[in-house]
Design a protein that fits this description.
Helix content is 28%, strand content 25%. The chain has seven helices and 13 strands. The chain has helices at 42-54, 66-75, 141-145, 163-168, 179-188, 220-237, 239-246; strands at residues 3-6, 20-25, 32-33, 39-40, 58-63, 80-85, 94-95, 102-111, 131-134, 154-157, 175-178, 195-197, 203-212. A hairpin with a 5-residue loop joins strand 3 (32-33) and strand 4. The two termini are 33 Å apart. Pfam families: SBP_bac_3. Residues 1-17 form the signal peptide. It comes from Aeromonas schubertii.
Length: 254
Amino acid sequence: MMRLLLLLMLLSPWLSAKTLVVGGTLEAPLKYLNEKGEPAGLDVDILATLFAALKQPFRVELTDSGARLTRNAEIGVYDMVFTHSYKPERESYLIYPQQSHLRHSWHFFVRKEDAGSIRYDRLSDLKPWRIGLTRDYAYTPEINAIADDPAWRVQMVTMNDLQLRKLVMKRIDVVPMPLVTAFAQIHAEGMEGKVDYLPHPFKSSPYFNAWCKARADDQTPALMQAYDAELLRMKRDGRLRALYEKHGIPYVEP
């Protein structure tokens, strides 16, 4: 089990403000360690930019275990956790802000040269094509239903990072993936210009940096209100979009 604790202090923090502990899982390009062993990624940059404006110090603690992250959030190891979707059961230990900073948008990826000939408005549009699916992946019920249907040309694998490689090698024609995950692999493996994605998402969900109830205090409501206001300003003045562009991730309005 790997647990990484790193300090990320903002410029000119309030001396009176407590340093928030923000937990997250290692998930490039959102949260990872750079070549210096420091926390980096889109999530880290967004929070650093936002908290710099609020003069709020924080440090980042990353783990490779989602179960450990949840447990630490529940017992009060963290003040906040990075990038959680809303689920009613999580309200027992998390407090969600009003503003989301990320929208995980899932699209069908195709080869660049096929982007004009393959269209997607409904799933049946893709029936003539070879579709790559990853076993036990969180698609939609409609997509999961075609996995074992012999009327569809589905190729199943157990490792999702094989899908774009198979697409480039022309072993499949279409593969569903979230934009963030896909573009991280595209940049890492030099696939720019070789693949594209169809414009209509088949699944889209907002994600939030949430506060942990176990560590909340009487200053938390005011800080959350300031957080929401600053994140909204970042959306309106283009700073949020610029951070997405810095990391090579297509911007989808959260």
